[in-house]
Structures are given as structure tokens and as C-alpha cells.
Design brief:
228 residues, eight-stranded parallel β-sheet, globular, binds pyridoxal-5'-phosphate
Length: 228
């Protein structure tokens, strides 16, 4: 039995402590509880402890949970790889998407977002360490994609997301987060809707908070280890 309530309290305390040291307000940070491969019971336990934002990586797995937990006021974040044939499900069921990295996907999400819903909040995933196998756009092509998304009626461009390669110590963890923060800052000069940095997971949240994260995506530290 995973102690979700206790884990969540520990994560909140860590966010408050690091934010204070960094001279930031904890209220400027949103923890997204990443519930992939955990069941509805775990999500409900976190919800009962006050958690409102949840992140999912797999569309088919997420749809069942979203349906079961409907009408409670949960904010759903899609943080997984996006296949073209899943964009409609994403556009109609989620409030945020963190992993947009190409025009084709952005265009489909905008077109498929129901007119009755507010614009879908979008972060662009940046391949911040230039890893050949990893999703995300290269920094040099970012401005063009950002302008493209900004012009789409069904989407609201909110900011940037990254998933750096793992590093052991906080000083090295901070470098890619600082690079993402710099990219967001320069985008923000022409695109004022950019107010979000989605960065930091269970193993590097302190580094991300220090570099200006506004959304932390935390799985293991809240729900415990996942099945492999
Ligand atoms: C799984 C996942 C997380 C959460 O990772 P933890 O190390 O369990 O906190 C965050 N972001 C993305 C994109 C993920 O896939």
C-alpha cells in the first residue's frame, strides 16, 4: 500500500523549502501528479489530499481514468508521446498538452479542439540535450514552431517543457533547466502568453525550482515505483 497522502505532503514541503531558499513563492509552482500506470484509487487518494492536476502518458490508459473521475474538477495534463491518430482524443479530453514538437500535431490538435471548450493549453517540448533518439524540437527551430502555434485558434501557447538526460548532482541538473528558461524568456518577448516552464521530476525537482520551473511533473515521489 503506497502512502499517497504522506508522499504528497512530503513533496509539498520540499517545494516550499526549495522555493523559499530560491526566493520564490511556492504558490507560483504547480505540481502535476504523474499517475501513469497507477490506478484510479491512487488518483482518488491524491485528489482527496487536495491534489488537482494530474499527468498521463498513454492516451488509452488515460481515457478510462478521465471518464471514471469525471466532474470532480481534475485538471488533466497530457505528457506523453503524441501519435497523429490520438490527437482527437487528446484534444477532447485534456486541459493541457506538454509534448507538442511539430506543426502537423499542433494543427490537428487545434482543429479537433471542440469549440465549446477553452483553448487547449500547450507547451512545446524542446530536446534540450540534443539527444538523437529523444522527442522534442531543436532550439534553433523553436521560434518558428512557437509562432505557428500562437496563430492557431484552438491552442493557447503557454510555454516550454523538457526532459533532460538524467544527471546525478544538482549543479549539473540545473544546466539544461537554465537553458530552457533562457529560451522561454526570449520567446516571451514577442509572445506574451508564454508564462510556463514545465520541468523537473522526482529526481531533479529542486534543480528545476531553482531555475524557475512553474510546473513540476512528479510521479514516483507521490505514487511510488511503477511496474516496469
Ligand atoms: C513519467 C514522467 C514523469 C514523472 O517521472 P518521475 O520520475 O516518476 O517523477 C514526468 N514527466 C514525464 C514526461 C514522464 O514521462
Amino acid at each position: 500500500m503506497i502512502r499517497v497522502t504522506e508522499n504528497l505532503a512530503a513533496v509539498r514541503l520540499e517545494v516550499e523549502n526549495v522555493a523559499e531558499v530560491a526566493g520564490r513563492k511556492a504558490s507560483d509552482l504547480t505540481v502535476v501528479a504523474v499517475s501513469k500506470r497507477h490506478g484510479v484509487d491512487a488518483i482518488q487518494a491524491a485528489f482527496d489530499a487536495g491534489q488537482r492536476d494530474f499527468g498521463e502518458n498513454f492516451v488509452d490508459e488515460a481515457l478510462g481514468k478521465i471518464d471514471t473521475l469525471a466532474d470532480q474538477g481534475i485538471v488533466w495534463h497530457y505528457i506523453g508521446a503524441i501519435q497523429s491518430n490520438k490527437t482527437r482524443d487528446i484534444a477532447t479530453n485534456f486541459d493541457w498538452v506538454h509534448t507538442v514538437d511539430r506543426e502537423k500535431i499542433a494543427r490537428r490538435l487545434s482543429r479537433q479542439r471542440p469549440a465549446s471548450m477553452p483553448a487547449l493549453n500547450v507547451c512545446i517540448q524542446v530536446n534540450i540535450d540534443n539527444e538523437p533518439q529523444k522527442a522534442g524540437i531543436d532550439a534553433e527551430n523553436l521560434a518558428e514552431l512557437a509562432a505557428f502555434i500562437d496563430a492557431l485558434p484552438g491552442l493557447q501557447l503557454r510555454g516550454l517543457m523538457c526532459l533532460p538526460r538524467p544527471r546525478d548532482d544538482e549543479a549539473s541538473q540545473r544546466a539544461p533547466f537554465r537553458a530552457l528558461a533562457d529560451l522561454a524568456k526570449s520567446l516571451g518577448r514577442t509572445l506574451p502568453s508564454v508564462d510556463t516552464l514545465s520541468m523537473g521530476m522526482s529526481g531533479d525537482m529542486a534543480a528545476a525550482i531553482r531555475e524557475g520551473a512553474t510546473i513540476l511533473r512528479i510521479g514516483t515521489a507521490i505514487f511510488g515505483a511503477r511496474e516496469p
